[in-house]
Amino acid sequence: MKAFRGTLIAALLLLAVAALVVYLRPPAPDGLPVEGVRIFAFEKHELVSVRVERPGAEPLSLVEKDGGWIIEGSGFAAGRSMVNRVKHQLHDLTSRATVVEAPDQLELYGLGDNAIRVRLGLRDGTELAFEAGDPNPSAVSYYIRPLPGDVIYTVKKSAVDYYSLTLDEFREQRFASFESKDVTRLQALIRLPEGEDSPAVDRSLVLERVGEREWEMLDPEVMAANEDRVRRLLGRVNALKAQGFIAVPADDLAARLPEWGLDAPRLDLSLNFASREPMRLRVGADAPSESRYESLAYVLVDGDDTVFIARRGLLEEFASDLQELRNRRVVRMTEQDVRAVDVVLRAEPPDEELAGQAGVRFAAERWMWQDGVPVAGSTPSRVARFLAELEVEEFVEDKPEDLDRYGLTDPVARISLRNAEGEERVVRIGAPGPALVDPEGRERERRYATIEGADPVYLVDMRALSVVRDLIREGNRKKEKDLEKAGRLERIPSELPEDEAPPG
What is the DSSP letter of 233? Predict the structure, then answer.
């Protein structure tokens, strides 16, 4: 009861303090709401132009054109992030407080002649305008005056503080954008001097798309390329962002290329596309950086009159070991592609009795044995997944003279995979290879493998052979059961005795 009485007293005291605060708070100016006034209200997609007029500077106009935005008068692409920022901050702008209704001195708030004037054009021809002034004493809000009108409000800082930024900061930072799926060919010349922790690199690289998700390397070697690695290279190019811009008149560009190391670039890259003109990009000398942790370089895109300053990580990406570009998915199928699997297993120690052959087919959304009996369990799916999506752990030999040394002339297992079109890929699994030892000293078995019709020999995870053994084991059990069933049927008399025959 005492605890309840103490809680009641505390609640009453709290109510008294709240009433005192309300009583002592100075009233707002007559007729002025304190906060929550909706200043602008429009849909983001309705915005088609933004004009910014700053004291002592040329006006800046962003205009929607052909589905994109440009900086009018310069031809530069407007930054998508900046346009989205304007839309997001202003489409439902609400005041934090109403400051004054008819001020005598607009300059006290950074308004009037000292203000930044912003005009917004909407799709239906409506124009909205306001003046952005100084930050208020707390520095977390800015003064704003909607035009026409005399009322001054404060709004959140992020709504208007960016209008004082330079022209470059309104430009699109990404200067090498493209759709990766549209790229059909990549050709690069990489020339990097020897570094403290890296060897010199002087080579060409040519990659060509040969399928929706397949790439082939044509130079410096001919081999299947790793699609993930190719996408990573394209992604690094696509993600380039300008840290700075150097405008160069077109007539002066060729003569000034040595100034930025672009006459003999460290990376000379050309991309071909299915639906647009090719793009050539060059990475030149290192550019000054304000951060010791950020390395920059000069970059030029042919046809542009701007030299960009961007991060130079692209160079290291293109100079990486060619082995990283090799396609480790050597079967070039997916589990979903496989519609038939036929395996042959040769016995070997310690499972001398485990041998045979088995075949399964995928039909009516399930795996079946060749006689049409559904397969119980997930073994066929595991075989299709591990073998179709087999990922090489190590490239052993590209042009082997003798497959016997790898146990691949008479392989332990031969697996045939066929897709719906009847295309076949055959995997051979041979003798045990060097085990992979993890940092904790644990060993993982591996096997030599090859693809029929191709030369290279690989090392693959032992699981590829393990799932084949599982399928053979299940197939052999089925055959034994089928034989037992057939034997029982043979022992059943085919004709009834005469004394049991039905009356004629």
Answer: H
The SS3 assignment for 235 reads: helix
Q: What is the rounded distance in angstroms from the CA atom of residue 193 to the CA atom of residue 311?
A: 18
Alpha-carbon torsion 229, 230, 233, 237, what sign? negative
Question: From CA 502, how far away is CA 504, in angstroms rounded?
Answer: 6
**Contact, 127 vs 139, CB < 8 A?**
no
Q: Reduce the secondary structure of 300-339 to three states and give it as a string.
A: EECCCCEEEEEECHHHHHHCCCHHHHECCECCCCCHHHEE
Q: pLDDT band at residue 362, thresholds of 50, 70 and 90?
A: very high
Q: Residue 346: phi, psi to the nearest 5?
A: -95, 140
- Exposure pattern of 243-258 as b/e (b: 16+ CB <10 Å)? bebbebeeeebeeebe
Beta pairing class for 424-437 and 443-451: antiparallel
Nearest C-alpha neighbor of 139 from the set 165, 116, 110: 110
pTM exceeds 0.85: no
In angstroms, how far apart are the furthest CA atoms of the chain?
Answer: 127
Nearest Cα to 376, choosing from 355, 360, 356?
360
Backbone φ and ψ of 256, nearest 5°: -100, 0
Place of tokens 């009322």: 151
Whole-number Å distance between alpha carbons of 228 and 474? 36
Summarize pLDDT for 416-444 with one digit per residue, the tens. Answer: 999 999 999 999 999 999 999 988 889 99
pLDDT at 343 over 90: yes
**Which two three-digit tokens encode residue 346?**
């040769």
E strand intervals along 125-200: 127-135, 141-147, 152-156, 183-192
Residues contacting residue 66 through CB under 8 Å, at least 6 positions apart: none
Mean pLDDT computed over 449-473: 95
- Using alpha carbons only, how large is the chain's radius of gyration in Å? 37
Cβ atoms of 394 and 320 within 8 Å: the answer is no
Cα 392 to Cα 463: distance, rounded to the nearest angstrom:
12
Identify residue 171 by its one-letter amino acid code: R
Residue 44 CA to residue 89 CA, distance in Å, equals: 10
In contact, 223 and 327? CB cutoff 8 Å: yes
| CA gap 224, 474 in Å, rounded | 35
342, 274 Cβ separation under 8 angstroms: no
The one-character DSSP state at 494 is: S
- DSSP symbol at 102: S
In this structure, the strands spanning 141-147 and 152-156 are: antiparallel
189, 138 in Cβ contact below 8 A? Answer: no
CA distance 372 to 376: 12
DSSP-derived pairing of the beta strands 279-287 and 267-273: antiparallel
Which residues have a Cβ under 8 Å from the Cβ of 470 and sit 6 or more positions away?
379, 382, 383
